[in-house]
UniProtKB/TrEMBL annotation:
Pathway: Nitrogen metabolism; (S)-allantoin degradation; (S)-ureidoglycolate from allantoate (aminidohydrolase route): step 1/1
One BP term from GO: allantoin catabolic process
Taxonomic lineage from the root: Eukaryota, Fungi, Dikarya, Ascomycota, Saccharomycotina
SUPFAM superfamilies: Galactose-binding domain-like
Role according to the record: Utilization of purines as secondary nitrogen sources, when primary sources are limiting.
This protein's record includes keyword Hydrolase: yes
Gene3D superfamilies, sorted: Galactose-binding domain-like
PANTHER family reported for this sequence: ALLANTOICASE (PTHR12045), INACTIVE ALLANTOICASE-RELATED (PTHR12045:SF3)
Protein known as: allantoicase
Enzyme Commission no: 3.5.3.4
Length: 339
């Protein structure tokens, strides 16, 4: 069974601890769908919030930035299949947003998932129900959390709406299950990457860009897909983000990328490390140790740090501190998996 949560409860219990595994920004992609007569299914997994936009489809005086199917009012459900952007994941909850769909929203939804190995076809997939049939209202965000995370990991999701209508955005949160067993003992990998299970579990501020962008692949396309805080005005101010690594890590190198941040990059950055069983440690825990002391940064550049402090230890978390504020595109924590 799933619980209906408030937005704040969902942020605290789901968003801060897990990854949206179907999102376009992690590489999620639409595989197929039953219908997209009025608006394209690909809008479901767009990273930005839905908006009224005259460049979108115009219908009855409204603009629909989402997925909308034709009206059929039968017992059949419309559906869309999405391939995860990560290798596989266990599922904990979903957000269904019906923004701007009022009178034509999806009355109810379910979410099913399946696990396919490389080369397997969806034609013979076995689907598990991970979010049971639940009613949806018009033009609002709905937050559903399972009573427990799924035991199985999955590679694809199928969102169904009963019987037809519109959904603006679909987020599906879970714990990334990377293929760590296939990695050789001395292989150096980026264990902050979302693909290897990294999660930005807490930050001081994310006014202009969310902290989870730090862990995405590539260097992005503009400032909007990085982490950027608001301008501080108090002397001594710093902003910070805590990243839970995909596995306990022996760190060899850290990369801080300020791509596209030119007049708003941090003046300095610092990195601390921590080994703990806590999922979300406090930012002022006395056990944090320095890995990179406060160091000046520059605009639009990948800064590579190989002369690190305290690397005789292994770490479960790193904390990036930006001084005093600003924007960072990506954080890479390169190292080996600790035994």
């Amino acid at each position: 069974m799933s619980q209906i949560l408030s937005e704040q409860e969902f942020k605290d219990q789901v968003v801060s601890l897990y990854t949206d595994v179907v999102g376009e920004k992690v590489g999620g992609s639409i595989v197929n769908f039953s219908d997209e007569w009025f608006a394209a299914a690909e809008n479901l997994i767009k990273p930005k919030a839905p908006i009224r936009d005259a460049t979108k489809f115009v219908y009855s005086g409204a603009w629909y930035d989402g997925w909308e199917t034709r009206r059929h009012n039968t017992e059949e459900a419309d559906w869309v299949t999405i391939k995860f952007g990560v290798s596989s994941a266990k599922i904990i909850g979903t957000e269904i947003d019906t923004a701007f769909f009022n009178g034509n929203h999806a009355p109810a939804i379910t979410v099913e998932c399946t696990h396919l190995e490389e080369g397997q076809s969806l034609d013979h997939a076995n689907w598990d129900l991970v979010i049971e049939k639940t009613e949806c209202g018009p033009s609002q965000r709905h937050f559903f959390k399972r009573s427990s995370i799924t035991e199985k990991s999955y590679t694809h999701a199928r969102l169904k709406q009963y019987p037809d209508g519109g959904i603006a955005r679909f987020r599906l949160y879970g714990e990334v299950v990377p293929h760590l067993d296939s990695i050789k003992a001395n292989s150096i990998i980026d264990l902050a990457s979302v693909g290897f299970g990294g999660v930005a579990v807490k930050c001081s501020d994310q006014h202009f860009g969310s902290a989870d962008n730090l862990l995405l692949p590539g260097r992005g396309h503009d400032m909007s897909d990085g982490w950027e805080t608001k301008r501080s005005r108090q002397p001594g101010h710093v902003d910070w983000v805590i990243i839970k690594l995909g596995a306990k890590t022996n760190i060899n190198e850290i990369v801080i990328d300020t791509a596209h941040f030119r007049g708003n990059f941090p003046q300095k950055i610092a990195i601390d490390g921590l080994s703990t069983n806590e999922v979300i440690p406090t930012h002022d825990d006395s056990k944090w140790v320095s890995i990179i002391k406060p160091t000046k940064t520059t605009a639009d550049k990948e800064h590579s740090f190989t002369e690190l402090e305290n690397i005789d230890q292994s770490y479960t978390h790193v904390k990036l501190t930006i001084i005093p504020d600003g924007g960072v595109k990506r954080v890479r924590v390169l190292g080996t998996i600790a035994k």
